[in-house]
Design brief:
single chain; 313 residues; Aminopeptidase; seven-stranded mixed β-sheet; globular
Length: 313
């Protein structure tokens, strides 16, 4: 089995640093790490397995869901949210309810088990030119395992959020990732600077075989310098130098709709060469069925109210 980083011991340490209770179990052909998420005013309590459970057979999936049901019942949670990896399955066979996005169901990966020249040759010509010439523009690249350097990424992400009117993770969430993951070499910070000013930054998750392109931001004012392109190219090549076998660019959309909110960064990621990988849709396994049905009804009504208010405006 090959668990995703979000099922790793490092991710468990991060979740525990956030104050969350985490449970880990394993058996024949299955294993999982589940996070206890207490109920809120809008949602009942649940267990969440990000990109899990990891299984190697349908029998393993059945056993994992049985173990999750037993654990959830003992904790009194209303449902379990899962994203099983390892086998193809029919959700109806397991009474799973497909829900809207939690983690991306598809990702884009680059095979690093080739020479650096071969990897670069698969990038679009514009990307190759940027990678080979960005230093001539006065730009420089560096990486860091110092948690204090996360402030540069956080600052850039706030700029991205303001410019694009999107919501990002809290400063505490990102800084805690850096505080926990960087010292144990389970993450790395990457920067492109113009003279002494950081204009693009990223945080990658790192395990033995894979580098995951997790969080990234760049200065809108300096966008013509293509620092984001130079940065990702450096991340890919440095992952190769570090002995990684795969660079996972994390999430893409398979939608052909040019107006899809992920269309832009999907094109960006694909421009570095690579291949699409299907992960898992997100599913709920109801434990307390009446409570879960009430939750779904309330969520549906909230969605309708929001749509109605938008039309009124």
């Amino acid at each position: 089995m090959n668990p995703h980083f979000l099922q790793s011991a490092a991710w468990q340490s991060f979740q525990e640093a956030l104050g969350r209770k985490v449970y880990r179990q394993k058996g024949i052909d299955w294993e999982f790490m589940a996070i206890l998420e207490p109920g809120t005013r809008l949602s009942p309590s649940r267990l969440y397995c990000p990109y899990g459970p990891t299984v190697s057979s349908i029998k393993g999936l059945k056993s994992a869901l049985k173990a999750l049901t037993k654990l959830a019942t003992s904790l009194g949670v209303k449902f379990v949210r899962i994203e099983p990896l390892g086998v193809k399955f029919n959700a109806k066979d397991f009474r799973l309810k497909r829900v809207n996005y939690s983690q991306p169901a598809h990702t884009w990966q680059i095979d690093l088990n080739r020479s650096s020249d071969e990897i670069i040759s698969q990038m679009k010509q514009n990307n190759r030119n940027i990678y080979r010439n960005y230093r001539k523009k006065g730009l420089s690249y560096r990486s860091s395992n110092n948690p204090n350097d996360c402030k540069y990424l956080i600052k850039l992400l706030h700029g991205v959020a303001a410019h694009n009117n999107i919501t990002i993770h809290s400063d505490k969430y990102l800084q805690t990732q850096a505080d926990v993951l960087l010292p144990i070499n389970s993450a790395k910070l990457h920067f492109i600077s113009l003279e002494s000013k950081v204009i693009a930054a990223a945080l990658t998750y790192e395990d033995e075989k894979t580098c995951y392109y997790a969080h990234a931001g760049a200065s809108h004012e300096c966008r013509k310098l293509s620092a984001s392109t130079a940065l990702l190219a450096e991340i890919i090549i440095n992952a190769k130098k570090d002995g990684k076998l795969v660079c996972d660019l994390y999430g893409i959309t398979t939608s052909q709709n040019k107006n899809h909110r992920w269309a832009g960064f999907t094109r960006f990621k694909k421009s570095f060469g690579g291949y699409e990988v299907d992960l898992s849709e997100t599913y709920d396994l109801p434990i307390n069925k009446p409570a879960y049905k009430l939750y779904q009804t309330a969520k549906f009504l909230r969605h309708k109210i929001v749509k109605l208010k938008q039309r009124i405006k």
